[in-house]
Design brief:
By secondary structure, the protein is α/β, with parallel strands linked by helices. It has one domain: Vaccinia Virus protein VP39 (Rossmann fold, 3-Layer(aba) Sandwich), CATH 3.40.50.150. The protein is built from nine helices and seven strands. Strands 3-2-1-4-5-7-6 form a seven-stranded mixed beta sheet, sandwiched between helices. The longest helix is centred in the N-terminal third of the chain and has 22 residues. It is globular, with a radius of gyration of 18 Å. The N terminus is likely disordered.
Length: about 290
């Protein structure tokens, strides 16, 4: 069933789709996506950025590509762990762009309710792409997270079952006030379900990294190209956990790729309060 609730065409985040094309093509290059989700625009962007990516990996030790790999893998790991404990869980991925996760998980878990949502143009592009490779057609909803349509979308899920909401490559494109608004909306929505879990990536301030100022300045490229408010908002895991608590989440765990304790065996808990230097973290929050 498609959600036909009107979407606010003047959303301040309607320009972010450039990054969806880039990341969509990188995931295809990484071998975890389908050619149907790799756009020509994404290929052009990947080719344009490739020299900078190679330089960043050689000089800084990381690049956009490496952080994409890290965040995608950590979110997948935490989702697999939750589904193993709660096989009746439902999944809603917001601002999904051209991510292959929904396609992969619907293949991996044939009975899983996995719904994707994005702004109208991106949702239409995703729906068209997936129609070539998925039968029956999956639910790809057009919704503005800051409008009334989001609650209508939540109402379409079974409130007696757990719900996992996923966002990837999204939260750093908001101002800090709008991020608090988003997280508050998600926490409020998740409280309607038997269990509510939110998985997201987040790029912290790169204060512990060599050439941190260069990384800061490089982030301005994303801000200009995506015509968004891309910014780093947090320095420590403690700050993130406090912000999640303010928004209404009562339990949050931060996963950092370089944490030696952060292995599949203990992926359910991580108490590191320090910024270990990673350019991207993954947060698992519950209500």
């Amino acid at each position: 069933m498609q959600n036909n609730t009107p979407v606010n065409a003047d959303s301040p985040h309607r320009h972010i789709s450039f990054t969806a094309h880039y990341t969509g093509y990188i995931w295809f290059q990484e071998g975890i996506s389908h050619a149907a989700l790799a756009s020509n625009k994404g290929r052009w962007l990947a080719k344009l950025v490739s020299p900078l990516e190679r330089w960043a990996e050689n000089v800084i030790g990381d690049s956009m590509r490496t952080t994409l790999r890290q965040r995608h893998g950590l979110i997948d790991r935490q989702l697999d762990l939750f589904l193993a404990e709660h096989p009746d869980a439902q999944v809603l991925e917001i601002a999904t762009g051209l991510s292959p996760r929904g396609w992969r998980y619907r293949q991996k878990y044939p009975n899983l309710v996995y719904v994707e949502a994005d702004l109208p143009d991106m949702a239409a592009a995703k729906r068209q792409a997936l129609s070539q490779i998925e039968t029956p057609a999956p639910r790809i909803e057009a919704v503005d997270l800051f409008g009334e349509g989001f609650q209508h979308l939540l109402d379409s899920f079974d409130k007696k079952k757990p719900l996992v909401i996923i966002s990837e490559g999204l939260v750093n494109y908001f101002t800090k006030d709008m991020l608090n608004d988003l997280w508050t909306r998600l926490a409020t929505g998740l409280k309607q379900f038997s269990i509510g879990v939110y998985l997201t990536d987040l790029y912290p301030e790169p204060v512990t990294r060599r050439l941190a100022k260069l990384i800061w300045n490089s982030s301005k490229i994303l801000k200009v190209m995506s015509r968004s408010a891309f910014a780093f908002h947090f320095v420590s895991p403690t700050e993130v956990i406090a912000a999640m608590k303010t928004a209404g989440f009562n339990q949050s765990v931060i996963f950092q790729p370089s944490d030696k304790k952060d292995t599949p065996e203990n992926a359910k808990s991580q108490d590191t309060a320090e910024h270990l230097g990673d350019l991207v973290w993954v947060i698992e929050s519950r209500v």
